[in-house]
Amino acid sequence: MTTRHDLLRQWVASVLGKDAFTLEPASSDASFRRYWRVRQGDNTLIIMDAPPAQEDCGRFVDLARRLRAIGLHTPEVHAQDLANGFLALSDLGDRLYLAELDAARADRLYADALAALAIIQARGPQEGLPRYDAPFLGRELEIFRDWFLGRHLGLTLNAAEAAGWDRAGEALIASALEQPQVCVHRDYHSRNLMITEPAGPGILDFQDAVVGPVTYDLVSLLRDCYIQWPAARVTGWALGYRQLAIDSGVLPAVDAARFLRWFDLMGVQRHLKACGIFARLHHRDGKPNYLNDIPRTLGYVREVATRYPELGDLERLLAERIAPALAGGGV
To answer: What is the value of pTM for the model shown?
Structure first.
């Protein structure tokens, strides 16, 4: 039987019209997708290998087109085989934000990323996208409970803790739903943004876009699971974006305190989910490296939970059950 890699090479040859090319790994992904760089002389393409049983290339193709149409820098789709899950994409290079962000360049790079985010939120597609509604947000929170608390730390919540968990979740979901709802990239962070020429970030991994809270992508970017900045600097960037969003018509003139509350609580929902996903990637998918990002990600949750009374139940759970389990070698 032809292996998937053989099938991919055959398809690339058919796209290029010849067999003379090299195929090398470009990057892996937290999902089932893999990426390859094809070299033919001085020309390169990126090949996405997304097994159709697990991934939907059609969403990537559709959203790449719709985002490019509003002036964003997403990969151009040169060829596609949706039945087998293969795409040939323009090559945006290999300069990830994560590798080049430092204290000196952060303001400029984040300014570019925030300008692109304003376009996504002001003009991005919404038709046909799933909605980040209460059941959706709740299912994401349960990833933390099932995979991080249960599978990774071996914790089972007692009745009082479970009730407290539910109350905290209700507060997080209510905050998310009271925000203006916009096009949400859903993974807008330093591993999915590229430094490209001309200026403006190359944007990757947008196929899971939804319609959801205005602060979701903002907190993904500024309280990144993979790189951390001083709290005062993050607040400054967040409030700068608030004004940009007001000027762009994305936000009504909400006051700074309300906006920062949205930002903080949205981050808690996202970071709880992320910790659960990192645990799942380890236990289910054999990708242990993501465990290294749990302390930073959970640290965001702990810091915010201490400042909001409505998250008191969550703060106690973190202090009384989760922190001791982690100290005992859970991560």
So the answer is: 0.94
